[in-house]
From TrEMBL, chain A:
Presence of the UniProt keyword Transmembrane helix in the record: yes
Assigned keywords, A-Z: Membrane, Plasmid, Transmembrane, Transmembrane helix
A Pfam family this chain is assigned to: AzlD
Segments passing through the bilayer: 6-28, 40-59, 65-94
Name by which UniProt lists this protein: Branched-chain amino acid transport protein
InterPro entries reported in the protein's UniProt record: Brnchd-chn_aa_trnsp_AzlD
Domain of life: Bacteria
UniProtKB/TrEMBL annotation, chain B:
Broad class of where this protein is predominantly found: membrane
Protein family membership: Belongs to the AzlC family.
Protein name, UniProt field: AzlC family protein
Keywords on record: Cell membrane, Membrane, Plasmid, Transmembrane, Transmembrane helix, Transport
Topological category with respect to the lipid bilayer: Multi-pass membrane protein
Organism whose genome encodes this protein: Paracoccus aminophilus JCM 7686
Pfam families: AzlC (PF03591)
Subcellular location: Cell membrane
Length: 98, 236
């Protein structure tokens, strides 16, 4: 049920993925960083988050864009669980109706 | 015995349970993606044992979707590893952002914890760190453990039953992912000026989505945003 080539590929993926996870931590652990670098680091999480979800913004499907707008509005006002539920319902509904 | 003890109400909830509770909305978002990934992997010829091996060893959904999309028999190891590295390179910054919150914790605990640092676990840990100044590893274990088990088990289920499910994104479940991330961004909001690099990142990533193949949009957006932040910050 497990092919050798699959096992080796997955193992190689494990190695690079884990390296990225500990690499940044180990590199910065014992260093003091400049205020400018600190400002960049503070912006980094938001930049990554928004880049990862960029494909959702890159659509021309009006139903998806409408659902995204509803989600964006909820995200600025509500907490996590209600926002997620409204987002799912809005996407399902708009795709069905539009 | 102690059920009438009035102090019982004031005992804080277990950090592990708190982590699981905070991870619940993300688990909701994981399930449909895991089913889709498992189903796609099965279609590419991966067995129901190989699928949880792939997701359990990596626990990085984006790279797993890319790997499955590129999968052939036998797989192109170097191509898949290069794409995995590219997509997961953001973990370097995410791990670095965790440094202040893991301060004083021994490496023998932090290094295993970092194995579970996917986008969602990181975002939860970051929010917890901003709230309390540090990340309790018990809280981290609750959040990471529950998300890990959800992801790996649901990809395995997807590999088994996926072929009969069809396309489940039509029910809107895929919108859970951007919803989770947008709530997090709202929590990090520090005014329009501070958020300007995010806007640059979004525009660059969307352009990369449209004009570049594959997952280049993640490094493209992130680098554009970081460069903007660097230029906006005054050198000392």
């Amino acid at each position: 049920m497990i092919h050798l080539s699959t096992f080796l590929t997955v193992l190689a993926m494990l190695a690079v993925t884990y390296a990225t996870r500990i690499g940044g931590y180990l590199f910065l652990r014992d260093r003091t960083i400049s205020p400018r670098l600190q400002a960049v680091m503070e912006t980094a999480p938001g930049c990554i988050l928004i880049s990862v979800i960029a494909p959702h913004f890159a659509t021309s499907n009006p139903a998806d864009l409408a659902a995204l707008a509803v989600t964006l509005l909820c995200a600025t006002r509500l907490s996590m669980l209600p926002t997620v539920i409204i987002a799912i319902v809005a996407a399902g509904l708009f795709r069905h109706l539009m | 015995m102690s059920s009438i003890d009035p102090t019982l109400d004031t005992i804080p909830p277990s950090p592990v349970l708190r982590g699981i509770k905070d991870a619940l909305p993300m688990m909701l978002g994981f399930v449909p993606f895991a089913f889709v990934l498992g189903a796609q992997a099965a279609q590419k010829g991966l067995s129901p044992v190989e699928v949880p091996m792939l997701t359990g060893f990596n626990f990085a959904g984006g790279s797993e979707f890319a790997a499955v999309a590129l999968w052939s028999s036998p797989p192109h190891l170097l191509l898949i590893v290069a794409v995995t590295l590219l997509i997961n390179s953001r973990h370097l910054l995410m791990g670095a952002a965790m440094v202040p919150f893991f301060k004083g914790q021994p490496l023998r605990k932090v290094l295993p914890a970092l194995f579970f640092l996917c986008d969602e676990v990181w975002a939860l840990a970051l929010a917890e760190g901003r709230r309390t100044g540090r990340v309790d590893l018990r809280y981290y274990a609750g959040a990471a453990g529950s998300l890990y088990l959800t992801w790996v088990s649901c990809t395995a289920i997807g590999a088994l039953i996926g072929p009969v499910l069809g396309d489940i994104t039509r029910f809107g479940f895929d919108m859970a992912f951007p919803a989770v991330f947008l709530v997090m961004l709202a929590g990090m909001w520090k005014g329009a000026r501070a958020a300007f690099p995010w806007l640059v990142a979004l525009i660059a990533a969307v352009l990369a989505c449209i004009f570049l193949p594959g997952a280049w949009y993640v490094p493209a957006g992130t680098l554009a945003g970081l460069l903007t932040a660097y230029l906006m910050a005054r050198p000392e």
